[in-house]
Amino acid sequence: MRLPFSRPRPVHDTVVTAVTPLTSAMVRITLTGPTLPALAFEQPTQWAKLTVADPAGAPVSRAYTVRHHRPGPGEADFDVVLHGRGPFARWAAAARPGEPVRIAGPRGRLRTPEGAGHLLLVADESAQPAALALLAALPRGFPVLALLETGLPQDTLPCRTAADAAVHWLPRAGTGHRKGELLLESVRDAALPPGRGAAWVAGEAGAVTGIRRHLLGERGFEREGVRAKGYWKAGEADHRGGAEQ
Ligand SMILES: Cc1cc2nc3c(=O)[nH]c(=O)nc-3n(C[C@H](O)[C@H](O)[C@H](O)COP(=O)(O)OP(=O)(O)OC[C@H]3O[C@@H](n4cnc5c(N)ncnc54)[C@H](O)[C@@H]3O)c2cc1C
After folding, report:
1. Is the CB of residue 83 below 6 angstroms from any atom belonging to ligand 1?
2. In terms of pTM, does the model score above 0.70?
3. Would residue 64 count as lying in a domain?
4. Overall number of domains in the chain
5. Atom 38 in ligand 1: residue holding the nearest Cα
6. Cα separation of 130 and 138, whole Å?
7. ∠ CA(81), CA(85), CA(86), 5° rounding?
8. Do 134 and 205 sit in the same domain of this protein?
9. Dist. CA 232 → ligand 1 center (Å)
10. Domain span at residue 204?
11. Tell me, what DSSP letter sits at residue 65?
């Protein structure tokens, strides 16, 4: 039974048209479909549930950020981390043009706090599609510190923004750190501009919780100024903690 407050999400049946390697551990999956010109994509960081078939034909649904939407040709890009363990990551590593993908969404609304004078952006690989889309949409000259964790030093992505952004790529390779630990360390060490700030933080759920706690406790961020979301959780398949937005 569908509860009255769970809105049905628009569904788009699409196929893969291109699979483009972006880094050693990320591919861009480009999808097209007859209804994709009408994808209701309005804001950076919006995401959709993508459903694919695993090798046994069973459906696998996971949340992915809409990286680009091109209404004209009816195309959308989703950038997928090849972390190797989950069924969706394995599907993406082997995906080929012509494979079917169902898109449900997009979902999510970005709430921007009133009067923030600067933005702290913190993201691991899973949240970089959202973080980079957000950077691209910020107003000219807006002060931003972006801390972006990667695997290898060369695993950086193009970053286009008119904001006054200091973008730091933080490679884990050789540090002995697990995913997310470098982000927490870097946020603790970061020199933030004075004045009221906002923060957007996403990635591994445990790291995100630690960063949020630090920003609210030791850095004096206001609760409504910190947008923190676990995009996945170490040791947990299909983590749902981040599914509401
Ligand atoms: C709103 C939202 C937007 C998201 N956008 C993106 C996006 O644009 N690109 C993207 O790649 N991911 C994104 N994610 C994260 C993605 O949904 C999860 O990583 C998902 O769990 C991957 O599914 P899977 O089948 O590969 O692994 P699962 O079956 O969910 O998990 C299997 C194992 O892999 C581990 N795992 C899951 N994800 C990762 C990871 N990234 N790194 C290392 N280990 C992992 C789990 O801890 C578990 O042990 C987003 C999540 C949310 C909530």
Report:
1. yes
2. yes
3. yes
4. 2
5. 232
6. 13
7. 75
8. yes
9. 5
10. 118-232
11. E
